[in-house]
């Protein structure tokens, strides 16, 4: 047993760190660090820099721009992106639709979509959830009826993250209304400019426009945009979701946040000294750090086990990572609320160059705390993760 | 022992409930109130006056209705249910509290009638850049100049300070920044020369202000209470405010719990209501346990709020706020989680309760501050 990384792994990590810090604009990393929302252009700029460095799609097959990395290197990459407050390359492209097309798409689809997906010349959105189909995704109703060389899509998707910027959307649609739930679903690629698509913003409790409703009214989609086989979409979705969960622990994110909590606590006056001198507050930081250290080792155990796992064996680890990872992320946003103290309450307007209320970072703290309630809801809610552990692993 | 309301209390509660239901029950109406330049509805404020709410805690000699902390509790609970925006805490509980417990007869006569009839609003200007939750951490100064006072300093996050007519300002008249002695309170007209205000919204849709005092010249009788003895007075008033906040929190938690239960009974996934899953049921049950514990402590706070002995009162109020903060945190987070995505939206009410409960949790101290006070002083038996 050896916890420490090899010198090669450390050199690999340091190389990434250097690239991230030198190439990604400091203002973008600062915004990510402060928990502010990025603009379309900032997300695109950062993604394209990573792509130019060959670092946007390391998990793809090598022939489509992926890297022949070990599981440890893949893990170090994700952690290092997050620890340096670099925006993750757009996950809908890189972690979701890209691997699905690469694994199940036709040669023609690969050629048409993969390069543009890697470079973000196509911005993808994920159209899975519906008003009536959240945790029970397989109950989705949006339909695609085959008519000649087209499907005609009708229905509604919701919670579509950054759909307002999307060029294309990948959909789960029902192609066989007679089949049992999971069996009549297909995976379709749809150009957002197609007539009949309407995008409506949903404003979240932090005041941000991050998610949308997307309506489909007799939208004609060429049959060549079907991925893989008709009615096999659920298998592709499962493949996609299992990719989504590999970086769900977001250990690098929480590490970065805890460092920031400490740095700011050292600059925040409290009582005779600084908040950092407050033993009760230090205990709360310690609790979060301990949980995070444990999760990091759990994650590393999972990475190491990937070498010799029989793949059909049920594995609770990704659910453990999701539950604990989301809880720790939320803890870091709560600690930051305490650092901001009374100033977390202010929500000043930005119209007339008014000075900040309290430290200039404080106004972003409560919105991020509110917004991060989402991490235990999406990506398979924490209750669904517990069901998975109980049923698939514990045999209950 | 008696937890029942008197006939009068019940009648008042019913009419407040009705008024708030009519004016806040439809969430769109709240947006209209919020859009007013004051951030709340002046029309409703006048209705509160008509109903006698604004004079509730003042004695009949002062022109009020001689209500107790239990009456305030009832009003605040209903305001919590409605997510009410009007400055009741700032004007009646805090401002009114300073006048009741510390004001001279002249100050009371000058300001209370205006509060009672709705024409005067107040705010408590206390927080400073460095003070966090310590009432005694005061860098703002007031210096005697002849028979006047000269006020200099800056206050932050003054709740409803942007629209208040008068400010109650804590300032140091002796000693150094963190001395417990040497703090005095002043009544400052918000439009006095040298006062500048910048108003803004808070995260929970209320209003606050940054207020600077630049050589503000005040008459001798602007001083409220004994010079240098402002801290015990502030503690007394803030304890009354904490008791009121506890009641508001219980109102918000109760409404949020009901909203969640309704949703659990309607929302279907996997061909059944999500409320039929036992994992969800247990969480909803835990929310109720937390709510009832909070309700008990809000009552305790109301009964202890006006206790004149600080050594008995302060730990009791701190205990109530500590428990209520923890209940509010649990209920707020669970409500969002059990709703799923819908509760993350601005359009749905649950998120607004969550935000108010979050912010309420840090008003006049977070859980740690209150726990520390209880740990240091201990709880005494209620006499
Ligand atoms: C900010 C945000 C961004 C999102 N982005 C996207 C996106 O880009 N694309 C997309 O397709 N979707 C997206 N989603 C949707 C997300 O995947 C769903 O919110 C999630 O699947 C939960 O569904 P729901 O919100 O309908 O809650 P529901 O499924 O209605 O669940 C409500 C509650 O019931 C619980 N519950 C449900 N079933 C059970 C059970 N069997 N046992 C115990 N408890 C249960 C849940 O855990 C939850 O607490 C996003 C959501 C959010 C909040």
UniProtKB/TrEMBL annotation, chain A:
Entry keyword Flavoprotein: yes
Keywords: FAD, Flavoprotein, Oxidoreductase
InterPro entries with a match to the protein in the record: Acyl-CoA_Oxase/DH_mid-dom, Acyl-CoA_Oxase/DH_mid-dom_sf, AcylCo_DH-like_C, AcylCo_DH/oxidase_C, AcylCoA_DH/ox_N, AcylCoA_DH/ox_N_sf, AcylCoA_DH/oxidase_NM_dom_sf, Mycobact_Acyl-CoA_DH
GO molecular function, one term: flavin adenine dinucleotide binding
Cofactor: FAD
One Pfam family from the record: Acyl-CoA_dh_N
Domain (Acyl-CoA dehydrogenase/oxidase C-terminal) ranges: 231-393
UniProt domain Acyl-CoA dehydrogenase/oxidase N-terminal: residue ranges: 6-119
Residue span, Acyl-CoA oxidase/dehydrogenase middle domain: 125-219
Keyword Flavoprotein (UniProt): yes
Protein family (similarity comment): Belongs to the acyl-CoA dehydrogenase family.
Matches recorded under PANTHER family: ACYL-COA DEHYDROGENASE, ACYL-COA DEHYDROGENASE FADE29
Record protein name field: Pimeloyl-CoA dehydrogenase large subunit
Organism whose genome encodes this protein: Teichococcus deserti
TrEMBL record, chain B:
Domain annotation Acyl-CoA dehydrogenase/oxidase N-terminal: ranges: 6-118
The Acyl-CoA oxidase/dehydrogenase middle domain, residue ranges: 124-216
Record-annotated Acyl-CoA dehydrogenase/oxidase C-terminal domain positions: 229-378
An example Gene Ontology molecular-function term: acyl-CoA dehydrogenase activity
Keywords noted in UniProt: FAD, Flavoprotein, Oxidoreductase
Swiss-Prot/TrEMBL cofactor(s): FAD
This protein's record includes keyword Membrane: no
InterPro entries the UniProt entry points to: Acyl-CoA_Oxase/DH_mid-dom, Acyl-CoA_Oxase/DH_mid-dom_sf, AcylCo_DH-like_C, AcylCo_DH/oxidase_C, AcylCoA_DH/ox_N, AcylCoA_DH/ox_N_sf, AcylCoA_DH/oxidase_NM_dom_sf
Oxidoreductase listed as a keyword: yes
Protein name: Pimeloyl-CoA dehydrogenase small subunit
Originating species: Teichococcus deserti
